[in-house]
Write a structure and sequence with these properties.
Oligomer: heterodimer
Helix content of chain B: 25-40%
Mean pLDDT of chain A: 93
Strand order of the largest sheet of chain A: 3-4-5
Largest interface: A-B, 14 and 29 residues
Helix content of chain A: under 10%
CATH class of the largest domain in chain B: Alpha Beta
Strand order of the largest sheet of chain B: 11-10-9-12-13
Strand content of chain B: 15-25%
Number of strands of chain A: 5
Structural class of chain B: alpha+beta
Order of helices and strands of chain A: EEEEE
CATH class of chain A: Mainly Beta
Radius of gyration of chain B: 20 Å
Distance between the termini of chain A: 31 Å
Strand content of chain A: 35-45%
Structural class of chain A: mainly beta
Number of domains of chain A: 1
Order of helices and strands of chain B: EHEHEHEHHEHEEHEEEEHEEHH
Mean pLDDT of chain B: 97
């Protein structure tokens, strides 16, 4: 599955077994997106959150 | 069959592994994006159970987001892994140190100061090099090896300028003489399931896998098992990663991590850590 990078228009590869919320990266501009699967099975790319100071384990 | 609500805000390798493990075990698991929900306090217990299942596996990468959801869910009667108490202690390095000391466990000598002047005083007293850490934070972020007074002044001044109250709590530790690695031990409930060495990458002294640390197999010795189990108990138990240092006088517990990342250690062992977490979660829901 492919989607268009909202930032630079390049093709972003989305794995076939993608899980809602999974992070994908644009091979051209390097932007990171969170995959959102719509009810009719379409893929939307949402900008992923930027690392926060409280991120981790 | 008991159902699990997996609360996340970012699907990492670990969350994917947990989702797969639940499918394999035939355990109903609903991923819930913490960024898409809000809470009402109080809330009807039926509504909560319907939305979150019988038990929640809290897997937010944002510590505070996870902690605040945990306090809500737990007080509304839903068990959460890890518990609020465990999450609170493990999320703060000084709280963890105090829990370890109270339990009589060996840990690096630690000092805390609350102004730049007293932080410098501590460093001047214990001598250089020493380690300065933020009390809240992960992945080695802002964990600094201070080699001399000039570096100490620079780092402390920078932390003051950041204007974050938590960064003005100065948590200072002796630099433990150790091999260029630490030991990560995974504890799930009362079972010690795996251990790995984490070697520092060539360009850093820290061993965090998020900073390029390299995981290698490590034998689980009875000493390591016992220490990790006691450390887990000291912070309230749950699904935890106990980080130990090989000091010159024996093992020391350095940290206990709460929302554990297990990608690195999984590359060194055949143990199905995700599967064991799911098993444990189901078991805790039945209690």
């Amino acid at each position: 599955m492919n989607a268009k990078c909202p930032s630079c228009d390049a093709q972003v590869i989305v794995p076939n077994d993608v899980i809602n919320g999974e992070i994908v990266g644009c091979p051209d501009c390097g932007a990171e997106y969170e995959v959102a699967l719509t009810d009719n099975g379409e893929i939307e790319l949402k900008p992923s959150e930027i690392e926060g100071e409280d991120w981790g384990e | 069959m008991k159902s699990i609500g997996l609360i996340y805000d970012r699907i990492r390798w670990d969350e994917k592994a947990l989702i797969k493990a639940s499918r394999k075990a035939g355990v109903p698991l609903t991923p819930i994006d913490a960024k898409e929900i809000y809470i009402n306090a109080p809330e009807d217990s039926g509504v909560i159970k319907n939305a979150f299942g019988d038990i929640v596996l809290q897997r937010c990468v944002s510590y505070f987001r996870g902690l605040h959801l945990t306090v809500f869910l737990e007080n509304m009667g839903l068990p959460v892994i890890n518990s609020f108490q465990t999450s609170l202690i493990c999320g703060n390095k000084l709280f963890t140190t105090m829990a370890l000391i109270k339990a009589g466990l060996p840990s690096p000598k630690t000092h805390a100061a609350f102004t730049p002047q007293t932080a410098l005083k501590v460093l001047d007293t214990i001598g250089y090099p020493a380690v300065l850490k933020p009390v809240v934070g992960s992945w080695g972020r802002l964990v600094t090896l201070i080699k001399d007074r000039e570096s100490a002044q620079a780092v402390i001044e920078t932390r003051e300028e950041i204007r974050n109250s938590l960064l003005q709590i100065y948590y200072i530790q002796e630099l433990v003489e150790r091999p260029p690695r630490d030991i990560r031990v995974i504890v799930i409930g009362d079972e010690v399931v795996a251990a790995s060495y984490r070697y520092s990458p060539s360009n850093d002294w820290r061993t965090n896998v998020a900073r390029g640390g390299i995981s290698k197999p490590c034998p689980l010795t009875p000493e390591l098992e016992q220490l990790a189990l006691k450390a887990s108990e000291a912070v309230g138990g749950g699904v935890l990663a106990v980080d130990c240092l090989e000091g010159s006088n024996g093992l020391l517990v350095n940290e206990v991590n709460n929302t554990i990342e297990f990608k690195g250690i999984s590359s060194t062992t055949d143990v199905d850590i995700a599967g064991k977490i799911i098993e444990y979660t189901v078991r805790m829901a039945k209690k």
